[in-house]
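Exercise 7. Given the components listed, write out the predicted structure of the assembled complex. Treat all entries as one system.
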Amino acid sequence: MNRPLELVCPAGTPAALRAAVEAGADSVYLGFRDETNARNFPGLNFNHKELAEGLKYAHDNGTRILVAINTFPEAGNPAPWHRAVDCAADLGADAVILADIGLLDYTASHHPSLRRHLSVQASASNPEAIRFYCNAFGVRRVVLPRVLTVPEIAALNREIAGIDVETEVFVFGGLCVMAEGRCALSSYATGISPNKNGACSPASHVHYENQRGKMVSKLGAFTINQFHADEPAGYPTLCKGRFVTNGKASYLFEEPTSLSAAMLLPELQAAGVTALKIEGRQRGRAYISQVVTAFRKALDAIAAGQPPPPLDMSALTEGQRQTTGVYEKTWR
Amino acid sequence: MQRSPDVPPLSPVLLAGLALRPFPVVMLQPVLDAVMLIIHRRHPDVFDRLSGFQNPVFLIDPIDLPCAFILTPETRNPRVVAVAEYDPKTILETADAVIRGPLMSLMDLLEGRIDGDSLFFSRDLMIEGNTECVVALRNAVDGAEINVTEDILALFGPLAGPLRIAKKAGDVIFSRATQDLAFLRDAVIAPSMHRHAAIESQLHKLTEKIDAIDRKSAT
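Answer.
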């Protein structure tokens, strides 16, 4: 019999954390209010006091807290990242989510009892990479990058069956179409790195203009898109920009859309996945509450041997569109 | 049917705003001052989360009201002031950012009933100017669990209970009025929508014909 799937939910503020716990999250992941995590957005994230209070609230309600420290330390300045790990350990976090091998080594040697998860930012997508992270740093869970089909995930889980490691996959939210942790598009446009500074398309470099009824979005010096009055909008990311080539405007990499693998949950469970992750630490608590409630119902139905109910969350998605993304990849 | 982002919805708010247009906006100021004082007292963390910015100024424009609001969320002395009008072309010379949307959407956002990104995707929320300030304000407000009604009712002590019941009755009336106006709007625009659908269908057929001609000439 399959184990129940663990629902891992985002929180960008203490209020969002409470919303996630109330809606039925098994685990909540969050980050500190600095460049040590990949959602370093203005007004978002937790200071040490808020994390301590959040940990108590979550643990009192039987929910685990995973602290994302998943950016890559600045060369010659690892101290903020080390302090973040020390703080997570001291306050009693249930796990840290890391990407950098130096930080993994620091955590393994200074806090051996602190559970270590490998962030999607490490982009470990094959058995050899996963085996290395487990053997070298005692990683207990790997968040798989969004580049694998469900059969590929099943094959991967079979190949790592001999290792004491779990896999976690994204099932809803923002969809990164690049090699995660290695994309430099936003860095090129803004000088700020998603992987080192923690913000893809940082708000400080984003501008919106209303031009004769159209909304034009710009990132730094680059025009990313222009949306007609009756067209749903998307995030101002280069990978989902609409650019003019050969006189025609089109989406070159990916259209504004969000991942929803709600109907693939039984297949993901059968593929040996341990945990399902919802993206969106930058989203409001209304999003957290709605999405977590919907997935909680779906997982409870699966645990009871029933098919998951249909979940329509298009109103919450980028461009008001959903995709199963690479899980059902048909173009390769 | 998708509404143009700049066109206000036909709602009780729009009608109430039009009815109140003859009155000077300065009459709103004592109420705004009281509400801001309460929010500052009960949710100081909102202003703490914005403390990294140099006194940002926001122009908040509920598109269905005949006035807008200038918000200066200073840590010690936050203030909101009503203005009857502003020049959209020059407003960003005095304000850091402009936030536009229907009043009820802005209230839902303030009280965390709706997600800001979702409002942005649906084009119900428009922003211009310093995006970083807007994102910080959105995150700070969302994290504060503001409930304007409850914050105000808390001032009334034992009267809060009866006032809460009155508020609920008012919500029911408002909800019914919103539905009725939407029904009225649909009835009024129905003939135009039929014509629109017919033109769209003709346009679609013409586009298909042109595409077919293009393909033929390409081969």
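Discussion: Residues 58 and 64 of chain A are 6 Å apart (CA to CA). Chain A has nine helices and 15 strands.
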